[in-house]
Amino acid sequence: MKLVILIGIAAMLLTACGQSDNDSGKVTLKQAPDEVASIYKSSCIGCHATDLSGKIGDKTDIQLVFERLSYEEIIEAIMQGGDTMPSFKDSLTEEEINGLAAWLSKQQQVE
Question: With 90 as the cut, is the pLDDT of residue 111 above it?
Answer without folding.
Answer: no
